[in-house]
Task: inverse folding
């Protein structure tokens, strides 16, 4: 009897600490996902209080829609185009600024400030920069005697423009994490590697990269999720255009739900996007066992 009461107290103590985190998780994450899954099986138009259960019709219609595959391809290109430059650029900046020198704190602040600046404000400024007639981007190209581009006004360069803005905003975030990771690399490992006659590149390859691999893995996951969920910069810069060239899956969800009032199919897109995110995360976790060193 005493043992049973003790176990109940332990279980109660555990729930006492878990509930403050579990309740918001249930209310703001788990329940909305389950509700969205339910809506994806209906023909709700976002306006009417009544709707019908249509089972898998929304998913069948979605997979027959050419816009879905175009948006999927755009999402892949956008994610790849932002993921690797952000990781590589953040690491490069961290390597350049890892040693303290006069003004290093100022440079770190300047590079990190885009991340804490609202995406809407950043995107409005870049809209001016990308102006084909009077923007700074074409002025720089002209200075180097390069042809001017239409940037966000052309379907050939619009996605590149959004990628540039997204990478520029994310570089400082990756840099801060890499700076912290580089400070924790034991100096003894560099000394031992140097005694073996290793050059700078070999020290970076054999010591630095393995030691910062947990940070790299974290940034890969976070950057990938942020890329799949990108919306603000697309809405401000291009509204999914021109000609759908910057329409990602998340922006397709917005257009279906809030422009075409087809919330059933819109949530079907959201469910597919969640499934893709989970699948890619699981794959990265599996692969990480081979290259992440804790």
Result:
């Amino acid at each position: 009897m005493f043992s049973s009461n003790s176990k109940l107290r332990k279980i109660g103590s555990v729930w006492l600490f878990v509930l403050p985190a579990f309740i918001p998780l249930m209310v703001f994450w788990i329940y909305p996902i389950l509700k969205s899954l339910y809506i994806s099986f209906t023909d709700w138009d976002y306006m009417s209080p009544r709707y019908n259960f249509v089972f898998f019709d929304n998913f069948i219609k979605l997979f027959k829609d050419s816009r879905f595959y175009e948006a999927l391809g755009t999402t892949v290109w956008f994610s790849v185009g932002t993921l690797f430059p952000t990781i590589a650029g953040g690491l490069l900046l961290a390597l350049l600024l890892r040693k303290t020198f006069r003004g290093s704190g100022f440079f770190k602040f300047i590079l990190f400030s885009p991340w804490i600046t609202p995406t809407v404000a950043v995107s409005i400024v870049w809209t001016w920069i990308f102006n084909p007639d009077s923007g700074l981007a074409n002025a720089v190209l002209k200075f180097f005697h390069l042809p001017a581009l239409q940037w966000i006004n052309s379907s050939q360069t619009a996605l590149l423009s959004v990628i540039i803005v997204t990478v520029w905003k994310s570089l400082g975030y990756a840099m801060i994490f890499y700076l912290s990771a580089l400070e924790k690399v034991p100096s003894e490992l560099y000394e031992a590697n140097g005694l073996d006659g290793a050059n700078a590149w070999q020290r970076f390859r054999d010591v630095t990269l393995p030691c910062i691999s947990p940070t790299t893995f974290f940034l890969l996951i976070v950057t990938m999720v942020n890329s799949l969920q990108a919306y603000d910069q697309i809405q401000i810069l291009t509204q999914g255009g021109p000609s759908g060239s910057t329409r990602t899956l998340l922006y397709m969800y917005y257009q279906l739900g809030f422009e075409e009032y087809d919330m059933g199919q819109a949530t079907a897109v959201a469910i597919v996007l969640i499934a893709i995110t989970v699948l890619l995360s699981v794959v990265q976790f599996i692969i990480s066992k081979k290259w992440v060193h804790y």
User: Anything to note?
Assistant: Residues 2-39 form the longest helix (38 residues).
